[in-house]
């Protein structure tokens, strides 16, 4: 299965959504909403903001799910 390199992050505070490029081998711990200016942090149990608020999880998690 192919690894997705982009994810749409949706702010839980205001609903603003934006497509962002994900790093291939790293997790992103903080993200600032361009509309509401809130700082998003991962939910408990998630490794990054893409896993918590994105349309696709980060590449390292995708790789684990694919058995890589």
Structural overview:
With 68 residues, the protein is of the alpha+beta class. It has one domain. 18% of the residues lie in helices and 21% in strands. The chain is built from two helices and four strands. The protein has helices at 49-53, 59-65, and strands spanning 6-10, 17-21, 31-32, 39-40. Strands 1-2 form a two-stranded antiparallel sheet. The N and C termini lie close together (10 Å).
The ordered H/E elements are EEEEHH
Instruction: Write down the Rg.
Output: 12 Å
Task: Please indicate the count of domains.
Answer: 1
Shape: globular
How much of the sequence is in beta strands? 15-25%
Q: For the report, how would you describe the main beta sheet?
A: 2 strands, antiparallel
Q: Give me the count of strands.
A: 4
Helix-residue proportion: 10-25%
* Main β-sheet, spatial strand arrangement: 1-2
Q: What does the average pLDDT come to?
A: 93
Number of helices: 2
Low-confidence stretches: none
Class by SSE composition: alpha+beta
Q: Report the span from N to C terminus.
A: 10 Å
């Amino acid at each position: 299965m192919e690894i997705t390199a982009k994810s749409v992050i949706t702010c839980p505070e205001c609903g603003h959504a934006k497509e962002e490029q994900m790093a291939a081998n790293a997790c992103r711990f903080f993200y600032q909403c361009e509309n509401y200016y809130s700082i998003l942090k991962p939910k408990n149990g998630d490794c990054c903001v893409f896993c918590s608020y994105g349309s696709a999880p980060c590449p390292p998690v995708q790789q684990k799910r694919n058995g890589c």
